[in-house]
Amino acid sequence: MTTAVDERDDEPELEVPYWLKSSAEAASAGFWRMLRRLPRLLAQAWRLAWESSPRITLAVVLLQLAGGAVGAIGLVSVVGVLDGLLAEGPTPERVRAAIPSVLIFAAASAVRTLLSSAATAAHGRLSPLVSRAAELRLLELTTRADLAVFDDAAWRDTMYRARDRGTFASQSLVDQAIELGTNVIALVAAGGVLAVLHPVLLPLLVLAVVPTAWAAVRSARLDYRQRLRLTSLYRRRYMLSDLLADRDAAPELRAFTLREFLLAEVRRLLDTETRAHIRVMERQVWTTLAGTALGAAATGLTYAVMIWLLMTGRMELAVGGAAAYAIGTGIGALSQVAFTIRHLYEEGLYFADYQAFCALARQHAEPDTAGTAPRTFEEMRLDRVSFRYPGAEKLAVDGVSLTLRRGQTVALVGENGSGKSTLAKILAGLYRPESGTVSWDGVVLDDYRPDSVREGVAVVMQEPTHWPLTARDNITIGRYDRAAGQDDVEHAARAGDAHDFIVELPRKYETLLSRHFTDGADLSGGQWQRLAVSRAFFRDAALLICDEPTANLDARAEHDVYQRLRELAEGRTVVLITHHLASVRTADLILVFDHGALAEQGDHDTLMARGGLYAELFTLQAEAYSRSS
């Protein structure tokens, strides 16, 4: 009988994607290659720590060094203790002879404990600072990236991996580097004592831990390679799991009885993950067993050599006792070093993902030009503008040339997929053309900072984001640089027809708009749409772009919104994207798109007289309304 997680040889879900081949090669690195990579990892870790807080980083290093020096003094004092206790003469005299060394050992232990506590406290302050710096860097680079790359699946996978483990790896890399430093200092102290006591014991000590280190690194590599192969699968499963538990998706999930279908898909993905985990776990167990067995044999050899040295008179008994203590300390330190190197190497691989994404984000960052765009313009011109989404064969916008003037109301119409929304994003400065230019009053927008261009644009999305902020903040984030008095906020809310429902909320304008938090409230789709329109009014921009702004509104509210948009158009340029062609009859200019190209342009009467695509679409809608009435 088979189980849900039986082995299968064919796992297409686990093939490493082509864009992660370099990471796969890094994950396949051998033990010695890992050791060669170690200095660079340590340098990166300490650089991160230094950038986060030079003062605390310096304190950690000094405390570690001091602790190691005191530890070495403690080890050396063991020889004095054993010399006194094993010397000839009455017991009281031997005890008295050992007392100074005992006091030194006790004092060294106490001081080392204090130094270790101080180092731990400094480390505890440094670690969250590193995590904070790494996360902020990731978010800053992500939000600076060109919007078009978010349509690239490879980009999303790389971003997911950087966010999933990369940020944590930044903190963990510093933690492991500090841990490694602590253990290496302890190891150097033990090794120095052994080298003084008898040189042959030092290489044997290293030999005792090499197998354990090999096993630890190989186990880390196996775990990382598995996560590498499961990246896309993880992302898909989390996405489906979120939908199964999401409030907004819950009605459609039940209405279309999707529960069993989606559960089956999640179950399939989980089965694939489980099989992969079991295979890796089994290989890790055998690797650890082999490393432990070899390490135990090498440890036995070390003690056998020490016994031989004692029996042949090549080592005094007191020195042998001290050597045994130092060997125990050294093996413990070496084991910790091997364990830490394993984690350092593993986190280094994840940190490499973080760095790779940061480099990719910088590569796709929007241009950082010095020019600042004016807040208004008289004329906006597009000259043979084309745009293609990442990985797409066809152009989404194909050679569009047009001119928009201040005070115009311009409508973009066409069938689904005709390029209307893509062109609107180009007008808003969200997408950069693949070819052609966009200019304000004769100045190409490439000469301006992208953010400064967008400060002169307000956008009402078809599906506005439900920001988990107060109702007031949801309006004022449209101009965070503007001091917002309550009168200004209410004026914008009334203009967007949002004031009436806002004052009915539990805390009115200070109500948090998210049911995920205590005393939070949620809005209907139409109310979110009105809030988005209010935000556009508050932004007070030269160019207003509305992508299906009334999609979630009833007929009366739709009429009111369009009336307010016409009022807002005074002194501004308004671009409307809509499928409701009756709403654009009064537009100054109607642009008709077909397969990414500008097929027709003119006012309503001109286009109807032409009898082209616009006339066909308008007539079809009019006939539909006539039949329904």
TrEMBL record:
The keyword Kinase does not apply. The chain crosses the membrane at residues 56-82, 102-122, 285-311, 317-339. SMART domains: AAA (SM00382). SUPFAM superfamilies: ABC transporter transmembrane region (SSF90123), P-loop containing nucleoside triphosphate hydrolases (SSF52540). Residues 58-346 form the ABC transmembrane type-1 domain. Residues 380-620 form the ABC transporter domain. It is a multi-pass membrane protein. It is found in: Cell inner membrane. GO terms for cellular component: plasma membrane. It comes from the Bacteria. PROSITE patterns: ABC_TM1F (PS50929), ABC_TRANSPORTER_1 (PS00211), ABC_TRANSPORTER_2 (PS50893). The keyword Transmembrane applies. GO terms for molecular function: ABC-type transporter activity; ATP binding; ATP hydrolysis activity; ATPase-coupled lipid transmembrane transporter activity. Pfam families: ABC_tran. Keywords: ATP-binding, Cell inner membrane, Cell membrane, Membrane, Nucleotide-binding, Transmembrane, Transmembrane helix, Transport. Belongs to the ABC transporter superfamily. Siderophore-Fe(3+) uptake transporter (SIUT) (TC 3.A.1.21) family. PANTHER family: ATP-BINDING CASSETTE SUB-FAMILY B (PTHR24221), HAEMOLYSIN SECRETION ATP-BINDING PROTEIN (PTHR24221:SF646). This is ATP-binding cassette subfamily B protein. It comes from Catenuloplanes atrovinosus.
